[in-house]
Amino acid sequence: MSAIAPIQGTLKKRIISDIVTGFALGGVMGSYWWWGYHKGVIGKREAFYSQLAEQKKAEAAGPNDGEEEN
């Protein structure tokens, strides 16, 4: 019998720990990108195109706002 007990299972524990840490950090960073950056950019783009559509709608109606001339 040896004086020091054999170390068993440390590689398996390390691999599982690395995988769990990787998924957790990836999820946190992905969530930060989605809610912190992506949603803001998409909101600005949607507001721009909404405003552009309103402008085109107003231009198509004409200067008299759709009223008939006498």
Automatic annotation (TrEMBL):
Work out whether the entry's keyword set contains Transmembrane helix: yes
Judging by the UniProt lineage, the source's domain of life is Eukaryota
Its principal location? mitochondrion
Keywords tagged on the record: Membrane, Mitochondrion, Mitochondrion inner membrane, Oxidoreductase, Transmembrane, Transmembrane helix
Location relative to the cell: Mitochondrion inner membrane
The UniProt GO MF terms for this protein read: cytochrome-c oxidase activity; oxidoreductase activity
Any single GO BP term = mitochondrial electron transport, cytochrome c to oxygen
Membrane-crossing segments per the record: 15-35
Q: State the annotated membrane topology for this chain.
A: Single-pass membrane protein
Annotated pathway, please? Answer: Energy metabolism; oxidative phosphorylation
Supply the CDD domains for this chain: CcO_VIIa_fungal
Q: Name one GO cellular component term.
A: mitochondrial inner membrane
Keyword field contains Heme:
no
Q: Which family does it belong to?
A: Belongs to the fungal cytochrome c oxidase subunit 7a family.
Q: What is this protein called?
A: Cytochrome c oxidase subunit 9, mitochondrial
Q: Which organism is it from?
A: Zygosaccharomyces mellis
